[in-house]
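*** Protein under study ***
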Amino acid sequence: MTDPQVSQNSTQRIWESSVPPALQFAFGVIGNAIALVVLVLSAKTHRWRPFYRLVCGLAVTDGGGILLVYPTVMVQYAENFQYKFPTALCNYSSFVYTFTLMSSALIICAMSLDRFFAILYPFQYNSRNKGRRTNCVLAVIWMIGLVLSTLHLMGLGSSYNYYPKSWCFLNFVGKTTEDRTNSFLYSIVGLLALCCTIGVNIAVILSVCRNMRENSVSAARRFNKYTVVFLLVIVIVFTTCWAPLMVVIFCHAASLIQVSSQGGDGPLELLVLRFAVTNSIIDPWIYILLRKETLDGLKKCNTGFKKRLGIINESILDNSVGRNSERRKYQTKVTETGSTAQVTMETNGGTMSISPNQV
């Protein structure tokens, strides 16, 4: 029969392992840094259209937040949890966490709205001042995040050092009126951002699916299929990572979760926080490194690399291209408007144009 005390200590050691925060710190900083480098190097291609401005703001927010707060987390693990957070350091940690997570969620919501208007209302979307408009949206989002993350530092609530005493956040396990009010406000704004993101992405997916049924051109159908998969991944990842933390905060504020033996928090709260931070780690891979443009570029680099190594015979490729061109010549012309890509295809029977929406 297993000793209850031994089982409890084993479970505690799992949650107090330094491996998860170390991996989150490394992948979070490196992934977002790579995303920023890719953005800068491909600036001539995307020309800093609104979507890419938002992606840049997201990478700066996620990477900067992880870089600023995780060293304080690792100090506690290095000291074997004997280090006691001073009040000032705990307030700093809670501010960075709340600001980074909320701002990231609001930027993702803004990116979904950007795709919604770009695909469903392209004429209204393509205005001359859309770049300035996007910069203003980013500024407003950061201001909202700043306000929500400083309320508990200005008297509406407090900071709390959560299990295993390695991270601080707004005190959503507190039972005072101020703590509960701040927790309700933070979680409701987060849940509204989540619902908005899911709603607009589903609307775009339905619109793209209708276009797939009406359009028989294979190039457009492939583009639309990629769009659907891309948006579905966004919805699934964001919901999985962001919803648990918001639900736990709301349930604590509504007294739907009983306090644990650790004094109100425990492994559950640590788990949902790590889920939320994981969203900041995955974001750059979804929005930059796994986008169709990036994957196409990697395929071209891979093909060129194989040519140099002699894995692919260049003459065979040329003959294949020549035979295909005799049967069907096609020329792709991309007109960058920020929301659509005009594709003109020339066949033996004439010309045909399609306009797949650009995500």
